[in-house]
Amino acid sequence: MAGKAPGHDRYLCGVNKVTRRNVRRAAVLLPVLGLLVTACNGGAGGNSASGGGAGGDCYKGETANFVVPFSPGGGYDVIARGLAPFLKKELGADAVVVQNEPGAGGLTAANNLFVAKGDGLNFGLFAAQGIVGSSLAGAAGASYDPKKFTYVARIAQDERVLLASPKSGLKSVDHLQSGGPYQYATAGVGAADHIDANVLPTVLGIQDNVKIVTGFEGSSETELAVTSGQVELGSGTLGTRINGIKSGDQTALLLMGRERSKELPDVPALLELDLKNKPLAEAYIGLQEVGRAVFAPPNTDKNCLTQLQGALKKTLVNPEFVKSVGDSVDVPFEYTDGDGLKKAVDNVLAAPPELVDLLKKAYNGQ
Q1: CATH 3.40.50.300 for the 160-288 domain, yes or no
Q2: Strand order in the sheet with 182-185
Q3: Which CATH class is domain 63-157+290-353?
Q4: What letters, b where the CB count within 10 A reaches 16 and e where it falls short, cover 231-244?
Q5: I need a labelling partner for 138 at 20 to 30 A (CA). Which of 46, 161, 267, 325 fits?
Q6: pTM to 2 decimals?
């Protein structure tokens, strides 16, 4: 991770630590020493952490690492790369570098971020459904505690959609009640679509008609598998799949939400269906509503967090940013602060036992 070149102030702070014992004896130097110690600690009540500290500028002249837990080309990658130049400008950073860390459906990146430095220079954009769900299920690959992450913001509450390959001949959820088994492509344990594939069929009562196929690196690969007819079913966020739906590359069967989308008025929403287990469906929608979220390491410097939140909030309403990603994703960007995101996560962590059991099934490699 690139940072500031050592400046004169940092050099003085480093020397001061080495020679402090000697200069303490010289009373005449004590006022100077006091000034140096204050400067090194960021002022009265300051924080000496790298990247600024309380009251300081955390990002000027620094390089921030923006983690994406999926391979390049997918919706999350497109959004992060769209955000990066605007965040750089708002934060005054030298650079905001997007780092793709695919693996285990996002768990690899989450684990790495959890142990990264909380200096404000490390943060990531996640499908919070998978990150929180895996922890709730006690997944072996999740070595982080979601309660300890620093909640930066939710940038979108993008509803997910169940999709079929046009080559499958499937036109509606009713068609799934017979035939099959239909293959459902997922990016593997930890991925949001893997949760969909384990939970949604049970909610719909079609679990015997669905076979989960894993091994895809990310959403762009599962989308291609559905489009090509390699598998019959898949799922993704509406914003990243709407272009494929409108072009006829994929058939939308169901919106995983409370109400229909204005963009897909003929596609039913999950909670409008006549379901035998409505409470399970409600809990599942609550899991969806944690949305696309930005997390940072535990105990991230509060001043740096405030600066990052302000930059995100301004960027999300910047027409130039929305236009820059609009050709690839159609996401309803909406800023929700860290407290709001925490409430959504806490709601999921209090999920009913039946949903927890299905999540455990999802994370046991099924």
Answers
A1: no
A2: 210-213, 182-185, 233-237, 160-164, 251-256
A3: alpha beta
A4: bbbbbbbbbbbbeb
A5: 161
A6: 0.73
